[in-house]
Amino acid sequence: MTDDSDVPTGPQDFFKMFTETSEQAVETQQDLFRQMLGAGMSGGMDMNQLGAMSQTATFKTRVQSGGRISIPDAEREALDIEEGDIVQAVVVPVKRDRDE
């Protein structure tokens, strides 16, 4: 958002902004996945790594104090993640609620 005409003024504007931001995040994730598959086809990834891609989750969460993020219950259950497990996170900023 660069000028006053881009500032959401009502529920429809907020919904439109949310939808556009979500679509951008999905496109970014798809691009990343395509790049990873491309690396796999050229010898950058082996089949074990490709199989591990099927055990992934995509979700949005808010950064908490100290930079902490939470994995939703449904995602932890689906991926059998328990306290103390080590996981890898790929972070893509979706929206910023601050003046820059």
TrEMBL record:
Keywords: DNA-binding. Residues 58-100 form the SpoVT-AbrB domain. One of its GO terms (molecular function) is DNA binding. This is AbrB/MazE/SpoVT family DNA-binding domain-containing protein. It comes from Halovenus rubra.
